[in-house]
Amino acid sequence: MLSEPDFRAELRAWVSEKSGVEVTDHSPIFADRTLRSVHIPELLLLMERLRGTPIDVEDLRPTDFRDIDTLATRFGVRS
Amino acid sequence: MSLADSVAAVAKRLSEVSQHSYQNPYTALDWPETVDPDVDWFSSPELLSLAGTPEWDAMPEAARKRLAFYEAVNFYSLNIHGEKSLMAGLAERLYRKEMIQVADYLHHFLDEENKHSIFFGGFCTRYARVYRSRQFSVNEEEVPRDVGDFLFFAKTMIFEEIVDHYNWLQARDERLHPVARYINRNHHVEEARHLIFGRQLVTELWRTQQWDAQTVDDVRGYLAAFITSSWREYYNPDVYADAGLTDPWEAAETAWQSPAQREHRRTVTAKCLGFLASEKILPEEPVDAF
Q: Is B237 on the interface with A (CB under 8 A)?
């Protein structure tokens, strides 16, 4: 199972690959349009694969996608 | 700005055909009480998301048929979710001044999409379930209305072009259960009209746009990401879990990366990409879709 630092690193790498932009855990990836809503299905699939369980789509809020730190806290590997 | 007479003329002709072929989705198909996913094919095996992968090669026939059933449910679910957005967008544009010349056809378009969802939903809720969508909106910033209209109709056309490839082949596949063939055939017949309209309208909206270079780049980037995202949802871990695969997320990732599936996506999307390239809408294919 992935550690939380690895989860964050995978997300950073994926965002960079998608956008060509290097991001930190606190970069506002959607507000600054590094990513757009059209990328969310792929992002959810990635996070589900990394944590090995589904994410309840009905329970999502726009603020869950503020930055990688928020994503890791909300959807990352549970300790 | 009004639409070109050529688009209005096509819409008028298509409206006449839609009126002539108007159907009742509640009486058009006799639904069997039950179906047997281990016995009948519900998707063409060559079109499945695991076709050409080692996982597929190792599957016995009953497991392949079970996967084909759940992939049919996923295909129908993707259509339901796509049509929900489409219907909302069509309703929003009904009788707007820029679209007034095609309002009559937008009524048919909306009506036919609703009926498609009745068929797709009828199958999913009778025999399985509607798979969840992973689409979610966080930053749909306001874009100029003409940009929004272009993206809406271009996305609709791309989605329908991909779907129609599956419909066209599966409607003719005599191995498939009659209900699956009917749903695919019925969808293809009406989508063929929607695609004619979509291509005309997308061409016209693109031809008359006067956007700056940044907007054009944004639109192209969005459409490329939309193509990749649309394809990604064909590789649904929920399907693989229902079909009994042990690690559904890894199966999705492996299938997505497999050379056979990359080639499959490229083949299915070729006609659509050819159109987008010929109109100079999307001169280069999306790098991460294939």
A: yes
pLDDT at site B287? 86
Q: What is the pLDDT of residues A57-79, one digit of tens each?
A: 999 999 999 999 999 999 997 64
Q: What does the pLDDT average to over A38-64?
A: 95
Q: Per the domain annotation, does B287 fall within a domain? A: no
Answer yes or no: is B100 within a domain: yes
- Regions in chain B scoring below 70 on pLDDT: 1-2, 139-140
Closest-CA distance, A21 to chain B, in angstroms, reads: 14
Q: Are B104 and B11 in contact (CB under 8 A)?
A: yes
Interface of A with B (CB under 8 A): 17-18, 30-31, 33, 36-42, 44-45, 48-49, 52, 54, 57-58, 60, 62, 65
The pLDDT value given to residue B140: 66
Helices A40-51 and A68-75: crossing angle, nearest 10°? 50
- Calculate the CA B28 to chain-centre distance: 22
Contact B136/A60, CB-based, under 8 Å? yes
- Chain B positions in Cβ-Cβ contact with residue A32 (cut-off 8 Å): none
CATH number of domain containing A39: 1.10.1200
DSSP 8-state secondary structure symbol assigned to residue B174? T
Residue in chain A nearest B249 by alpha carbon: A49
* Digit-coded pLDDT (tens) for B68-112: 999 999 999 999 999 999 999 999 999 999 899 999 999 999 999
pTM of the model: 0.95
- Say if residue B271 is exposed, middle or buried (CB neighbours under 10 Å; 0-12, 13-18, 19+): middle
Let me know if residue B198 belongs to a domain. yes
Chain A closest-CA separation from residue B234 CA (Å): 11
Query: What are the tokens at B222?
Result: 């969005």
Domain residue limits at B129: 5-210
- Residue A60 with chain B: CB contacts under 8 Å: 136
Tokens of B255: 């299938």
How many domains in chain A?
Answer: 1
Range of A48's domain?
4-75
Taking CB atoms and an 8 Å cut-off, how many pairs form between chains A and B?
Answer: 63
Residue B276 resides in a domain: no
pLDDT at A79 (0 to 100) = 42
